[in-house]
Amino acid sequence: METLFTKIINKEIPADIIFEDDLSLVFKDINPQAPTHLLIIPKKPIPKLSDASEEDKELLGHLMWVAGEVARDLGLDETFRLVTNNGAKAGQSVFHLHLHLLSGRPLQWPPG
Ligand code: 5GP
Is the dihedral of CA 34, 35, 36, 38 positive or negative? Predict the structure, then answer.
């Protein structure tokens, strides 16, 4: 099912894009929860992490690699958190797999 992230991938709605390659897109969250709040998404529309299949293993690794690359490029001082909300009860609101990258303020643990 198409979500608004598909529209962002297809440039049908605007987003502040930080990075793009054949497999992934990174853009700023519209409602940031930290001074830096990015969303790292696959272009393939996987609804959530638990829907990924074995054939997606490389793609999932790629997303993690992109997260590290972007953090390095932005000089985040090696201090950031990656989160994926899997399912509505875990706080997921957009059903296109995404990693949240949060940085720029102290981050509490455990998260809420
Ligand atoms: P979730 O709640 O599914 O883990 O995260 C979805 C995220 O997408 C939220 O942090 C929300 O602020 C962000 N978001 C929702 N709609 C848009 C949009 O149109 N543009 C951007 N850049 N982010 C969005």
Answer: positive
pLDDT per residue over 50-65, tens digit each?
Answer: 999 999 999 999 999 9
- Name all residues whose Cβ lies below 6 A of ligand 1: 4, 15, 27-31, 39, 85, 91-94
Distance (angstroms) between ligand 1 centre and the Cα of 93 equals: 7
Query: Ligand 1 mean position to 41 CA, how many Å?
Result: 11
May I ask the CATH architecture of the domain 4-103? 2-Layer Sandwich (3.30)
Pairwise CA distance, residues 102 & 82, whole Å: 7
Q: What is the pLDDT of residues 70-107, one digit of tens each?
A: 999 999 989 999 999 999 999 999 999 999 999 999 99
